[in-house]
Structures are given as structure tokens and as C-alpha cells.
């Protein structure tokens, strides 16, 4: 399994992976209730829109698919084929006006749904992960040159670069913390690193896993996160309770 996405009321989630399919699961029933076909290779990333009527997916086949959950069919509503290499991350903006997609071809593509426009931002390095800040003003791009780049969302201006972790052969994820004050990333050497957003310096390191840290998720409101690695272990991280 490469990714999951959960709808707003937590009653369902979608999953994707190497079988080229997208599965929609009912949490209460504990079983898959729908599956969607259309990708020609493994699917890497998923996201629901805010009202959970649309699902987007990006895959190794260089295809970005839009799925209408209100329709009865199992084929995509729309397919974008503007990519030159594997799509690594997709998401809707909070106002549902744009779809963002990153790719190993070194570009971040912004699809303006309302205007029907495509804007391409050239990072010029293979991108393996992407994240948007809580205030929706900045974009993080994790690249295969062991550098995380911070961009201003509306202008695509490069604001900062973060180095100190190892990301040269495998996908590692990068996130904003709950206050947007720090950037956190996994590393191929098993560490998790925290960077000060403004000073670009690594301020804290955790020896987290044996081997590459492949996935991170930070709590939207609290100081807490979960990590997973190639060692097959998932860990929950919280600060110690006050003495």
C-alpha cells in the first residue's frame, strides 16, 4: 500500500498501491465497498476534496486522475497526462479551487479548477514529496538531492532550503508542524530531523527507525506525530508529560 486518504467524517477511506486500483473502504463495515480502475501502473498518492465528492490520484504511469464519487461507474471523470515522469504527491487546496501535483520530472503543477488553467513551477530536481502549510501560504518540496525547498504558494518564489537529512535514492516525506514554525522530515539513515522554518537549521534529530523513514504525519493541533519505516514499524511521538 502506497497511500491512504480519509474523508472528512472519518466514515470511509481510500487506499492505493501496486495493484493499479483504488479501493474505497467503509470503516464501520470493515470492508471495501468500491474499487476504481484507470491507472496503468502503481498508484502513489490520493486526496479527497473538502466535501468528499471528488477523489484525485497520481501514479507511476504519469497520470493524474479525478474520480467522481457520486457517479456509479468505476472509471475516472477526468485524466491529466501533462507529466513526464512518476507523480509522487497530489492534493486539493482547502478552498477546492486548485489541484497540486508533484513529479519526479522536477515540476509542481497547479491545476486551477475554476479557471481551467495549468501553471507549472520548475524545481529542476526530482520531487518525491510535497506539503502545504496550515495557513495555505507555503509549499514544501522534498527532492532527491537531499534538499527540502520552501516556496511561496501564490508566486512560487523560493524562500528557504533545508539540508542535513539523506534523501538521494528513496522517498522520504516532509511536513510542517502544527504551528508551521518548523519543518520535519524523515531520512534514509533512519533519523527524523526538525528544522527551524526561518533559520533553515536542523534543531533536533531523533534516531527513529532501522533504515529509511518512509512516512510521517503530524497532528494538526497538538505536538504529536507518527512515523513509519522500512523496518515495518510505526511509532507515535509525543513530548513527555510535565513532571
Polypeptide structure, described:
This protein is an all-beta fold and 243 residues long. The protein contains no helices and 23 strands. The chain has strands at residues 3-6, 12-16, 22-26, 31-36, 43-48, 54-59, 64-68, 78-80, 87-92, 98-103, 107-112, 117-122, 127-132, 138-143, 147-152, 158-163, 174-176, 182-186, 191-196, 202-207, 213-218, 225-229, 234-237. The protein is globular. It starts with a strand and ends in a 6-residue tail after the last strand. The mean pLDDT is 95.
Which overall shape is indicated by the principal axes computed on the Cα atoms?
globular
Biggest sheet architecture? 4 strands, antiparallel
The total strand number stands at: 23
Would you tell me the overall average pLDDT? 95
| CATH architecture classification of the largest domain | 7 Propeller
Strand content: over 45%
Question: What is the ordering of alpha helices and beta strands?
Answer: EEEEEEEEEEEEEEEEEEEEEEE
How many separate domains? 2
Can you tell me the residue ranges where pLDDT is under 50 for at least 5 consecutive residues? none
